[in-house]
Specification:
The chain is about 55% helix and about 15% strand. By secondary structure, it is of the alpha+beta class. The radius of gyration is 18 Å and the shape is elongated.
């Protein structure tokens, strides 16, 4: 994982074109600019190293992969019931027919929250789902 990818994993809402700049002058990548007003204190090297060593979370997975993992962890029925209970026809159609799930989708996040999956658990679900093969 690159320095920029590690920073994005630590600050998923950061804009790497505005909030920080990573440069490499031939001696390795470094943070050339950090917007403390937007992001707070610059992360320590230990935080960056820990983020860089983590397995990257896929930005999206196939919906069938997500359903397989939800079934494996015993959450598929709860997710289906949650979508039905939300009473949103567009969401019902998307849940039934979408081919991909985006990790940053507000609907995916809301469903995850409703079935008691925090951000870390959702990341783990996406990592696991990305590994499911037929």
């Amino acid at each position: 994982m690159t320095l920029a990818e590690a920073l994005i994993s630590l600050y998923p809402n950061a804009d790497p074109t505005r909030d920080f700049i990573v440069q490499d002058d031939g001696d390795g990548a470094y943070i050339a600019f950090w917007d403390t007003a937007s992001l707070g204190a610059q992360p320590s090297q230990a935080q960056i190293d820990a983020a860089a060593s983590k397995e990257p979370v896929p930005a999206s997975v196939y919906a069938w992969q997500g359903r397989v993992v939800l079934a494996q962890v015993g959450k598929l029925d709860a997710a289906n019931a949650t979508v039905a209970a939300m009473g949103n026809p567009a969401l019902n159609i998307a849940w039934g027919y979408a081919t991909e799930w985006s990790r940053t989708s507000q609907a995916v996040i809301a469903i995850g929250t409703a079935i008691k999956l925090d951000a870390e658990a959702m990341d783990a679900l996406f990592i696991s789902a990305g590994k499911v093969k037929l």
